[in-house]
TrEMBL record:
It comes from Chryseosolibacter indicus. Pfam families: MMR_HSR1. The lineage of its organism: Bacteria, Pseudomonadati, Bacteroidota, Cytophagia, Cytophagales. It comes from the Bacteria. This is Probable GTP-binding protein EngB. Keywords: Cell cycle, Cell division, GTP-binding, Magnesium, Metal-binding, Nucleotide-binding, Septation.
Length: 197
């Protein structure tokens, strides 16, 4: 599939104010700074469609982008950002939870994982929680450019083995680098297949 057109639609802190849920939607979530906004720019071939930053905590609302006039990509705030106040962190947590549980047109939640790190408790708990709520999900490893091929394969095997302890069937796993624009075709094919289902 080709993305011919991508436009910003809206930015809201409250899921009830988001665009009407009348089109398929794919959202990006993960720890702050994992590369959610960068991946949206990579996918849409737009340098600045979603705002990115070297500092965690850049995206603070639910951001909708309309693609090819008929489906949405959504950039969400990150979880696990330690440097904001507890109240604000809880606010983001609530916003994300409400979005995930209430957004009826959510075709798939892409959960982004920094491939450089060993499995993090916060990500594993989040993946588990999504599973318990039967949210359709796909795991997307980011920043693959930071590792050698060997390190990459090793980290992905460790992650898969960790997930297998609690998942009888593993969710789909994709590997990406926004910097090197790798994994784009796989991600677009995944979306295309989900749209066709
Ligand atoms: P929040 O909105 O704060 O939750 O962060 P985010 O997950 O949207 O991350 P963002 O896309 O803003 O990227 C965070 C930092 O990681 C930026 O400095 C990006 O340039 C960098 N980054 C993102 N993706 C990649 C990647 O694939 N490779 C490398 N090397 N750096 C990346
Ligand atoms: Mg962001």
């Amino acid at each position: 599939m080709e993305i011919k057109n991508a436009e910003f639609v809206s930015s809201h802190a409250d899921v009830s104010k988001c665009p009407p849920p009348d089109k398929p939607e794919f959202a990006f979530i993960g720890r702050s700074n994992v590369g959610k906004s960068s991946l949206i720019n990579m996918l849409t071939s737009r340098r600045n469609l979603a705002k990115t930053s070297g500092k965690p905590g850049k995206t603070q609302t639910i951001n909708h982008f309309i693609i090819n006039s008929n489906w949405y990509l959504v950039d969400l705030p990150g979880y696990g950002y330690a440097s904001v106040s507890r109240d604000k962190r809880q606010g983001f947590g609530k916003m994300i939870e409400q979005y995930i549980l209430k957004r009826e047109n959510l075709y798939c939640l892409f959960i982004l994982i920094d491939v450089r790190l060993e499995p993090q408790k916060i990500d594993l708990e989040f993946i588990q929680w999504c599973g318990s709520k039967e949210i359709p999900l796909c795991l997307v490893f980011t920043k693959a450019d930071k590792l050698t091929r060997n390190q990459l394969n090793k980290n992905i095997s460790v992650y898969s083995a960790t997930l297998k302890r609690t998942w009888s069937e593993l969710p789909s796993l994709l590997v990406t680098s926004a910097t090197e624009k790798t994994g784009k075709d796989d991600l677009l094919l995944f979306i295309e297949n989900a749209l066709a289902d």
